[in-house]
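User: My instructor asked us to take a sequence, write out its structure as tokens, and then describe one feature of it. I'm not sure where to start. Here is the sequence I was given:
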Amino acid sequence: MKRRRFLQLAAASAAGVVIRPASAQEVFMTIGDRKLGPGDALRVQSGERILFHFRHAGKDEDVFLHLPGHRFTVVALDGNPVPTRAAVNVLSLTAGERIDAVVEMNAPGNWLLGSLDDETRARGLGIAIDYQNQNGPPRWHPPAAVDWHYARFSAAGRSIPEPDQTIEMLFENQWIIDGRPTPDINGLKLPPGRRYRLRMMNATVRPCTVHLTRHFELTRVNQIPVSGIFKDTVRLDRYNIVEADLAH
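Assistant: Let's start with the prediction itself. The structure tokens for your sequence are:
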């Protein structure tokens, strides 16, 4: 039986769909308040494939993760397989988000998988990745660029049906839906049998997290059209727009 290391068993039940590429060790990691996993080193072998299951269970702070010398091939978001698997240097998770990503262990050495923010990483949001027969402390260096964007995982050439209704949602420290202040978006009533497009606009200086109790399909993120990406949690950047469809 292929070996598995469960760094955080609590994360195992979080994903609605578990993606298991062949011949990959599985590693479950939960991001808490400035912490990543239990803090001990993950030991790997050169040529091994690791399937990471990341879950952001902390508060509202966004997390950007990097593993020097390696790339993350994203295979699922919030438990839903992405239509296009793509490799990135940096993973971005907002509170409540989940990412499944495969990493090819092809850079022997001892490395630190952790936050891009130096202070946050020093407080514990990181974990050592130690290759077999390698000595010395884990090394860290930042990526050349932050290359994360949902559009990387969008379906190619997939058309999105026109919605039956578009609902404009403006966030100004409270939700303003179709021009009316609404303290709780969970109180929004949508009759069944229609396709609704939520046009969510963040008019504040800080990013915010939008979570729905059911999956939605992203159709536009920060002015870039996307399709085939199903999620239940999304990061809404400051002064920007996310559009998502609900088939209700």
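For the description part of your assignment, you could build on this observation: Residues 1-18 have pLDDT under 50 and may be disordered. Try explaining in your own words what that tells you about the chain.
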